[in-house]
Amino acid sequence: MLQKIESYIREYHMIEAGSHVVAGVSGGADSVCLLLVLLQLKERLGYTLSAVHVEHGIRGEDAMRDAAFVGRLCREKGVDCRVCHCSVPDYAKRHGMGEEEAGRHLRYAFFEEEKKTYEQKITCGAVKIAVAHHIEDNAETMLFHLARGTGIRGLAGIAPVRGDIIRPLLTVSREEIMAYLSRQGQEYCSDVTNESDCYSRNKVRRAILPVMAQINSRAAVHMYEAAVRLREIDGYLQKQARQALQACCTKQGQGVKINRELLEREEPVLRAQMMYQLLAGMAGSARDLTNVQIRQLLELFDRQNGKRLQLPYGLAAVRVYDGVEIFFVQNAEKTGKKPLEYEKSQFSFRILEEFSYNIVQISKKKYTKCFDYDKIKIGFCVRNRMPGDYLVINDEGGRQKLKKYMVNEKIPAKEREQLLLLADGAHIMWVVGYRISSYYKVDEHTRRILEVTFYGGKEDE
Questions:
Q1: pLDDT, tens digit, for every residue of 252-293?
Q2: How confident is the model over 119-143, as pLDDT tens digits?
Q3: What sign has the CA pseudo-torsion 379, 381, 387, 388?
Q4: Ranges of H-type helices in 149-199
Q5: pTM value?
Q6: Residues 220 and 136: beta-carbon distance below 8 Å
Q7: Which helix (H) or strand (E) holds 294?
Q8: Strands 165-166 and 127-130, sheet pairing
Q9: What is the CA radius of gyration of the chain?
């Protein structure tokens, strides 16, 4: 098994010599196996290793025992370990999400924090985050995506590498992991929440995968092999879509025009990939894109001139004579929406490159806000709300839909449509008169500040 994992790490270039690996260790069998395997391969592959344990605030004394177990195991093995405490139920309630999603978000936020810490310490190589997904986890994810509705990418399951996140155990089964721990004589913790049917993924794990294993004992392995092929197919389609987009698209002001005649020469399966890739590229994210929106965009090519479609991330599309134009909503004359009720003179914008960092002064001004200019991805504009708008509402990167935020703030429904927003794509930088997104906050690392003042507020501001 160790040889298989080492070959897998090398095949996908997960860890290079001189790198540091932050391992997520819950104390369960999978993550304990991950820690021991990474320890055994450390000298051979030439990296350093540390661990992070996240206590979710769900299981009381049992969770504290798990945290103590992980701390003790890491001390015995000579591995630096950071234990992080949080309350998943509170976080889920505040952000309007399920506990599964909330737990995952908090875990990865802590992993990222630790990654940044080691990036400042090491002199060469990258810092990677290792998590303990295995073959059955991949099968569970494929089925979960299939049940919720997905395309080829969702059916491809869990990727071996996603950015700086690596999954060295993805090529081995749960059975192999348990046999390895038995040979090592290594204890591990059991999480009773894994036995609960309150969580959707547990239902797949406990009810569906065992039935599939009765049909074929290697069902999860066969699904993994299919996922590898699907990932290859997706990569090929992405490459073909990029080439086709270059032939079909032309720059049109701040947006893009897609030629209908050239688009129709492509295969239907490729057209969908092209639209998905184009929207994700313009928005800088694919998180809120759905198959429904892609289908609606393709249907727009067959509608009469002038028909419009609103899309996530502050994007819109309009049918024109020879195709479809996609643009950001600040091109207001093309959207067909009621113009914003503000004068440009009501806002002033300036960029500060030399400034005295004073976070207290910045945070107290209601109608003058400062933003980290270099974090702006797409470009800022003032507009009204659009589907898909969101804010980052805490320093851990937690997202909240704009609609949810306005409900929580008790902003009257009749005022929401006319509320002025400073937006970077679908990411709302500032709900004018209310709050800014935590993502753009000025801190000690800020090099350039965008200062925005709204003169339509109270005179004493």
A1: 766 889 999 999 999 988 999 999 888 888 877 666 677 788
A2: 888 877 789 999 999 999 999 999 9
A3: positive
A4: 152-155, 174-184
A5: 0.66
A6: yes
A7: helix 291-300
A8: parallel
A9: 25
